Amino acid sequence: MRNLLILLLLPCSVVFAQPNRPEAYPKGYFRNPLGIPLQLSANFGEVRKDHFHMGLDIRTQQKENLPVYAAAEGYISRVSIEQGGYGKAIYIQHPAGYVTVYGHLNSFYDTLEQFLKAKQYHDEQWEQDFSLSPHQFPVKKGQFIARSGNTGASGGPHLHFEIRDSRTGYNLNPLLFDLGVPDNIAPYLQGLYWYDRRYSTYQASPRRIPVTRLASGYRTTDSLVRLGSPLVSFGIRAEDKTNNSPFLFGVYEAGIWVDDSLRCYFQLNNFSYTDTRYLNGSIDYKTYSSTGPTIQHLSQLPGNKLSVYTADADRGVIRLNDTLIHTIRILIKDVAGNASVIQFRARYDASLQNNLFFTMNSIALPPNQPNTVGSTSVKATFGANAFYDMVPFVLGETGPAPWPAASVTAQLHQPTVPVHDNYTVQLALKDNNMAAYADRLVMQLQNNRYGMVKKADKTPEGWYKASFRNLGKVQLLADTIPPVIKTIGWQSGKAFPNQSTLRIRCSDNLGSVRYFSAQLDGKWLLFTHSTQDYLYQFDEHCPEGEHTLTISVQDIAGNRTVQELRFTRLPVKAVKPAAKKTAGKKRR
């Protein structure tokens, strides 16, 4: 027992042979992109919905409009403006072969802001994504480039910051560049689980192994962990922390050894936007999507092609073909090298074995090969990369609902199983009368966490198809209802005496509108977009006087609404300076 305690207290580099070594990135090349101490609210590789977090979220003291500075010398190579995503974002190309990204910005520095606005009016398009040449907007290290904000898909004021390799396009872990985040706290092991890998991870539920935290590390509550399967894998729920932030973060690396033999290890140094959706195969998605804990697999699922893993031939699945006691060690580390270790003894116990069975109407869809399921009314086609593990797929149907339903409602298995890439759904019309609405047919997918509507395209066989990346209920709908336009905080005919904002809300019965355009006296006018609302801030494009504002919106099915609104912009009233008060002296 004493030798085991000594082993657990040894430095991790002595106990474990680390399988991956990150590339040596230059320290000090990049500076903090803000003018305040660098404090994080999210780190690289943190678990997010359908993706790994691709950079750092830097706190801005719960404020907007803090100055943002270029992290190193280079030139602004790209600018993007979008309703979701990173909102307003700047990309800087650096001569050392890196690109830095600054997201959720409120505004750019004046010269760039003026260039952007001129381009938006030229293109008659608010959303933008364009490249720039090296001579247009060069920047020095520490140069002011923007003001922080809360634009795009942001849950609060902060700066999203990324470092990319411009040669490969991969996002790099910014903490490998030593940006000065203080950290001497080891990651927390909050849960340990095992899986019966005789079955798919979408069949077998995680079995919790009770763990006790000690001053020197962690241990299992039971001195011997009994496992009810000869084929198992493990998962952990773990989080990291830094010295100067109250937030909990994702772990950088973790690995598992059995009897001193490495079975599976991951290290989050870099990955691409193309591969980030493999997150859904790196976690227990079934538990996660059911609002359970976030469990990260210490095995590589058969269809998970993410390059962050080092694994044995069984990809981290452990064969216990005997009743011997085996030693299992798990290591969890952060970028700063702080580590947590748990070591325990485990043995297969056949008396605890619990056999599972397919439901009678399920179809086994294996990973790494194309799959098709269907009936006389519905067909779903999945590519070879669709699934990470075998799916016991169940296809259900309910009869056609009343108008505006144009097909059966197909239940495509359960949303607790992730799909990696787009698959195609085809639905047959419920009767020939619905063909009259062919140009207004949409396909709607719904589940308890997700909803989407897409225009349905006709196939040569007379069915209608669309593509999705989530499972759930799908049906064809005839959409003949146009979008609704509503003014917020003002009405047609209003006179605006001072600087103000025009707010327009556009909604549709089946979701958001696809197209929005505003013209002021026949000329395109720049509105920004936030959730359902479109905003225009009075500027030089709206002179004083009476105006006609024409709003045109269109939904996915092609239904269009046009509305004319009138208003008057009055001269801006000059604000008189307040009279100075003079304190009178008392006479003696």
Automatic annotation (TrEMBL):
Pfam families in the cross-refs: Peptidase_M23
Keyword Acyltransferase: no
Alphabetical list of SUPFAM superfamilies matching this protein: Duplicated hybrid motif
Domain (M23ase beta-sheet core): residue spans on this chain: 52-119, 138-167
Recorded superkingdom: Bacteria
Molecular function GO labels: metalloendopeptidase activity
Residues spanning the signal sequence: 1-17
InterPro entries for this protein: Cell_wall_metabolism_enzyme (IPR050570), Dup_hybrid_motif (IPR011055), M23ase_b-sheet_dom (IPR016047)
Keyword annotations: Signal
PANTHER family xrefs: MUREIN HYDROLASE ACTIVATOR ENVC (PTHR21666:SF270), PEPTIDASE-RELATED (PTHR21666)
Protein name: M23 family metallopeptidase
Classification lineage: Bacteria, Pseudomonadati, Bacteroidota, Chitinophagia, Chitinophagales
